[in-house]
Design goal:
With 404 residues, the chain is an alpha+beta fold. The protein is built from 13 helices and 13 strands. The protein has a seven-stranded mixed beta sheet, with helices on both faces. Strands 3, 4, 5, 6, 7 and 8 form a six-stranded antiparallel beta sheet that branches.
């Protein structure tokens, strides 16, 4: 399935230090229904094409594979560094088939390309799954990569243990680490033209990159000594104020892993309560560990506290509203509670509806990009896997009120 027409959902999955928020570089236009006369090809063996096009008023060229070609001539292009380009037919000026097949960049080549895009002073550090490009201390880059690799292994093992078939990421996973918030803010403008605000890290569905800055330089946690030293990192991790910082790294990396190992499809219509709540489920930090995060399934106490606090606000229609409508995540006044609800719902379903949740995740993994589902479809799919909403909500509230 693919759309008759491509619109521009320019999504960025972001998390703030004091407020988890889904952000977008522009208001996402609704995606169009599927059509049999549009072509989809995501095979890594497909031929490459060279394209010349205009995007955001700037002429560009790129080589890549066509993932979707809509009936109106719009295309979804993926380049060999994993980036996605949504192009209207009117903005495509040249298309030419290339002789060589599409092939993702090798880690070292991707590292060199990313470094070349950065200001002077950036270096790279590669691990089995990640390409870290940084101008922080090397120790901080290594600490971050160690956390990411442990998360990657634990996350993959967890879902495979639930019977979900995953694959190794097709592309090396790029992480951009900036020494200062100012550098991070400057680099984020393409994805967040309105500014990063309180968002201290985000995953871009467009670029497939996680952007963060050196959390050891955060004003509230600034310590004496060399910024980014292992000593300073461990000092920061021993402080309660570090919890949302470590959670940011894990949360954004969870999104990146999910969209690269087959659990979720970039630009697919994944319910926001599921996408964000599942990431929050994995983000729970552990300050007793020198690496800030120990594993999966821990109670996320900051989220639990918020959930319990506004539990009296729930009514007979609350669950249905969450399943149908994502507006609570976009409103700064309600986003904090919405993320707590999303965590609690995912926590409950994973713990008490494990088999049904797994089957639901398998269904979502098959959703194609750029095909919009109606709220009724989301609701029907949920009911198909979890049954009567009233009974489920009653059990959900009872179980989660007992979690301490």
């Amino acid at each position: 399935m693919s759309p008759t027409r491509l619109t521009k959902p320019f999504f960025v999955l972001g998390i703030a230090a004091t407020l988890l928020a889904l952000t977008s570089a522009s208001s996402a236009a609704p995606r169009k229904p599927n059509s049999a006369d549009a072509n989809t090809d995501s095979s890594s063996n497909t031929a490459q094409e060279h394209l010349a096009f205009t995007q955001n008023g700037h002429p560009q060229t790129a080589d890549g594979r066509i993932l979707i070609e809509a009936a109106d001539g719009g295309i979804l292009l993926q380049t060999n560094d994993g980036q996605l380009y949504q192009l209207d037919r009117a903005n495509i000026h040249e298309r030419a088939k290339l002789d060589e097949p599409f092939k993702p960049l090798a880690p070292q080549i991707l590292a060199e390309r990313l470094v070349s895009e950065m200001p002077a002073g950036f270096r790279s550090y590669n691990t089995p799954h990640y390409v870290i490009v940084y101008d922080t201390s090397r120790t901080y880059a290594q600490w971050t990569s160690s956390l990411l690799e442990r998360l990657n292994k634990a996350f993959t093992n967890y879902w495979q243990g639930q019977g979900i078939e995953l694959h190794e990421p097709e592309f090396p996973l790029p992480i951009l680490l900036f020494a200062t918030h100012q550098e991070y803010e400057q680099a984020a403008r393409e994805d967040l033209p309105g500014g990063t605000g309180s968002i201290i890290g985000f995953y871009s569905l467009r670029s497939n990159r996680v952007n963060m800055f050196d959390l050891t330089g955060t004003e509230a946690l600034r310590a004496n000594g060399a910024r980014g030293s292992l000593k300073e990192i461990n000092q920061i991790l021993s402080q309660p104020a570090a919890e949302p910082l470590v959670a940011t790294i894990v949360h954004e990396a969870t999104h990146q892993i999910s969209f690269n190992n087959g659990l979720q499809q970039r630009y697919a219509d994944i319910p926001l309560w599921l996408c964000e709540g599942m990431a929050v489920y994995f983000e729970a930090p552990d300050l007793s560990s020198t690496r800030g995060w120990r594993g999966i399934g821990r109670v996320n106490y900051p989220r639990l506290e918020v959930f319990h606090k506004h539990l009296p606000d729930w009514n007979d229609n609350t669950l249905e509203f969450i399943l149908r409508d994502a507006t609570l995540f976009h409103n700064p006044r309600t986003a904090f509670d919405a993320y707590a609800d999303a965590w609690a719902l995912n926590y409950y379903l994973i713990k008490y509806q494990t088999k049904n949740y797994t089957e639901y995740m398998k269904m979502l993994a098959e959703k194609p990009p750029l095909v919009d589902d109606t709220p009724e479809t989301h609701l029907a799919e949920f009911r198909e896997h979890f049954g009567d909403l009233n009974k489920l909500q009653q059990d959900f509230l009872k179980q989660m009120s007992r979690v301490k």
